[in-house]
Amino acid sequence: MMKMKLVKTLLLLLCVKLFCYAVIGAPQTCPANNEDKCGDSDEWKGEFFPDIPKIKYEGPSSKNVLSFKWYNAEEEILGKKMKDWLRFSVAFWHTFRGTGADPFGAPTKYWPWEDGTNSLNMAKRRMRANFEFISKLGVDFWCFHDRDIAPDGKTLEESNANLDEVVALAQELQTKAKKRVLWGTAQLFMHPRYMHGAATSSELKVYAYAAAQVKKAIEVTHYLGGENYVFWGGREGYQSLLNTDMERELNHLARFFEAAVAYKKKIGFNGTFLIEPKPQEPTKHQYDWDAATSANFLRKYGLTGEFKLNIECNHATLSGHSCHHELETARINGLLGNIDANTGDPQVGWDTDQFLVDIQEATLIMLSVIRNGGLAPGGFNFDAKLRRESTDVEDLFIAHIVGMDTLARGLRNAAKLIEVIHWTLPLHLFVFS
C-alpha cells in the first residue's frame, strides 16, 4: 500500500513538474490582463519596450550598454552632422519578423506583443512596435518589404488591400514620430510562385504577377515618402545553365526594369532606384553577382542614370570581395546609392547578416562614403539580425547600438585619416558636399 501511494505521489509530482515546464517554455503571446483574443486588436496597453529609455550619447567612458559611446547625432564631422553622414535605418524584416528559426531548428524568439498569427491586426501591432523602437533608438529611417509589413492574401487584390490598411497606419505613425522611409521593396523570393524567378521567370503569369506586385510596392513607397526603392533578385539567376536561356532571362529582366522606370516617372516618384548585388543564395548564381557585373548590366541595357547600387557588405564577401572594394567599384562608376550595413563570418560560406563590429572595416567603409560626398538620399540600413541564441527584447537595442557606434567610430577614424594624409593624395578624392 505504501509503495502504491509513493508511486502515485511521484507520478503527481512528475505531472506538476511537466506542467510547469510547459508554462515556462510557452511563448509570451498575450499582454497580462487581456481578456480578448490576442489577434482581435492591434492595440497595445502601455509601451512595447517599457524598460528601455531613449538611447543617448554618453561617450566612450560610459559603461551603460543602453547608450551610445561614439555616435553623437548632432556632432559635426568634416562639415556634416554625424546623423547626416550616416542616415541610419532599421530593417523591419530582421527586427520585427526575425524569429531565430533556421533550417535545423524552430523559432527561438517570442516577443511579448506577438500572438502567433500573421493576421492584419498583428501586422498593425508590429508597426506600432516598430515606431516606438526607432524613436527610442533615435533613428530617423526605416525600410521594409511589402510582405513583411502586411500579410499575403489569397489573391493579389486581397494582398493589396491588406497592404493599404497597414500602410495607412504606418503613414499616421511616421508622421507623428517624424520618421521617414529610407527604402521599400517587394518580396519576390519567398512565395512558391517565384521558385524559377520573378522578372526572369519563364512563366508569363508569374512575370505579370511580379510586375503587379512591384507596381504596388512602388506606389506604397511613394505614398510613404520613401527616398529609394530597392530591387533584390534573390531568385533572378539559375541552378544550372543546362536548362537556362541566360540571354533571354537577362533580356526579360531588363524589360522589367524599363517598365519600372517608366511607371516611376508616370506617378512622379522621385526616389532613387537601387539594385542590390549578391552572388548566390538562394540561387546557385544570381545575375547581379557584384557591383561590376551590375554596372555592366546597366550599361548594356541603357539603364545607366536610372539606377544606383545598394551595396551589402555580407554580399560583397560572398562574391570574393571586401566591402570596401564593392563600395569603391560602385563609387568610381557613379553608382553608390546606399549601404546595407552588416557583415559575414569569414569561416562560413553563407549570408549570416551579422551586425558590423569590425572598426577597421567600418573605417574603410566610411572612407568610401566620405569620398562619395555622403550617401543621401541613401543611407545605412541595418540589414542585420540577432543571433538565434539572443532572445531578450533588450538585445534588439544593444545590437543596433553596437552597429551604430561601430560606424560612428569608423567615421571619426576616416576623418582623422583624411586630415593626416590629405596632402599626399589627389584633392579630387575628397570633395565634400
Structural commentary:
- By secondary structure, the protein is an alpha/beta fold.
- It has 13 helices and 14 strands.
- Strands 7-6-5-14-13-12-10-8 form an eight-stranded parallel sheet. It has a two-stranded parallel sheet with strand order 1-2.
- Helix 6 (156-177) runs parallel beside helix 7, helix 11 runs parallel beside helix 12 and helix 12 packs across helix 13 (393-421).
- The radius of gyration is 24 Å and the shape is globular.
- The chain starts with a helix and ends in a 12-residue tail after the last helix.
- 41% of the residues are buried.
What are the defining features of this structure?
alpha/beta; TIM Barrel; eight-stranded parallel sheet; two-stranded parallel sheet; globular
Summarize the structure.
By secondary structure, this protein is an alpha/beta fold. Helix content is 44%, strand content 11%.
CATH architectural label: Alpha-Beta Barrel
**Which percent range fits the helix content?**
40-55%
Tally of domains? 1
Strand order of the largest sheet: 7-6-5-14-13-12-10-8
Instruction: Tell the overall outline.
Output: globular
Largest sheet: 8 strands, parallel
CATH topology: TIM Barrel
Q: Care to count the β-strands?
A: 14
Family: Belongs to the xylose isomerase family.
Keywords: Carbohydrate metabolism, Isomerase, Metal-binding, Signal, Xylose metabolism
Catalytic activity: alpha-D-xylose = alpha-D-xylulofuranose
GO biological process, one term: D-xylose metabolic process
